[in-house]
Write a structure and sequence with these properties.
Blueprint (H helix, E strand, L loop, with lengths): L9 H7 L1 E3 L5 E4 H7 L9 H13 L4 H4 E11 L2 E10 L1 H9 L6 H51 L5 H15 L5 H7 L14 H20 L5 H21 L14 H24 L1
Antiparallel strand pairs: 1-2, 2-4, 3-4
Amino acid sequence: MSDNPPVPIASNTFERIKRVSPEGSHSWSARDLARVLEYAIFRNFQPVIEKAKEACVQSGHSIADHFAETRTMVDIGSGAQREIEDWALSRYACYLVIQNADPSKPLVALGQTYFAVQTRRQELVDDAATKEDKTRLLLRAEIKKHNKYLAGVAREAGVVQPVDYAIFMDHGYQGLYGGLTRRDIHQRKRLKPKQHILDHMGSTELAANLFRATQTEEKLRREKVRSKSLANQIHRQVGCKVRQTIRELGGTMPENLPVAESIKKAEIREKKRLKADLKRVLSDTRE
């Protein structure tokens, strides 16, 4: 048998030093990473971090999104401590750091593979999240537009007063959500008083509500409804039909779908993405 110790498994090594915030985000301490990569003196590792930052900028990413300067207290003996500089690195930052590290270090090659794979996995997750953001924003805008159309047609049917319109909308929700009113849905999803239920729906739930709104609008218009009670009845019937279709397709009932984060956060991410894309295009044009 060989007396040589087993080669450390990269995934175990780098997972062990990973830090998880209360919100669930992951980061790595630059000092922890330096120790794992066998940089005995941290100042010898700092040029590697600087090269990684340059690579981050060249790839069109913001340094601030991936390299967060922090301060850490360390013991210096006799119960005393002093503050030292550190960086909280994202997964992508770690990938760039290891790409610029000394290739003769034993764990550098393993680290390059590990973070390349993990970064690609995260990219796929981010791509899916970006697609969901775009779909949600599109559907939310469409619902806002068609709710105005629906309100106009309902007004022609006699739904004029705000209280009447609230009752009319509840009939649609009751049909689609198995008897739940807008207030019931709000409570079921545990939203805060000022949070709008439509702003916290995922794309699947938004699509179901858009179909309810557009089909009710068309039916009221087509049948030239001029009765407030009939308009309420039709809205509920359409909601029930959409619910029945979801059931027949084996889908999840809308009241059981998960609550999505605020649509405003999706708007902020999309604006940042578009800004980054524009910056990248302008950079490529100058080159």
